[in-house]
Design brief:
The structure is a single chain. By secondary structure, this protein is an alpha/beta fold. The protein has two helices and six strands, in the order H-E-H-E-E-E-E-E. Helices cover 22% and strands 23% of the residues. The chain has a three-stranded parallel sheet with strand order 1-4-2, with helices on one face.
């Protein structure tokens, strides 16, 4: 599922998005936000979902997306006008139950 919440500032879009992801049972959630809001999202995710939630901050284009984390936070600035490929890493060995050597996510920003 893909969603875009277009409410005005202060309405509670962050909480809406987190609760929607929880309700849908989303296994991977990518949060794309302004750089100054990365840690606000981190705090809100932990507040709504609990401190056991695995959150990855993607800090640059070289970072791989870890499938061990449910939440992935990246900034608008990291999305560029050309297509970039983000690869998923698995901390378990290739033969492990969650091994996904060919899994990747593609983002395209215009």
């Amino acid at each position: 599922m893909h969603a875009l919440i277009g409410d005005e500032m202060g309405i509670g879009k962050t909480a809406q998005a987190i609760v929607a992801a929880q309700a849908l049972g989303a296994s991977q959630v990518f949060v794309i936000c302004p750089k100054m809001l990365r840690y606000v999202w981190d705090r809100e995710i932990q507040g709504w979902c609990g401190s056991q939630e695995r959150i990855q901050h993607i800090r640059n284009q070289a970072d791989s997306v870890s499938i061990d984390c449910r939440w992935h936070i990246l900034t608008y600035e990291q999305l560029v006008s050309k297509q970039e490929t983000w690869t998923f890493e698995n901390s378990e060995e290739e033969s492990g139950p969650q091994a996904c050597p060919h899994l990747e996510a593609r983002f395209c920003a215009m």
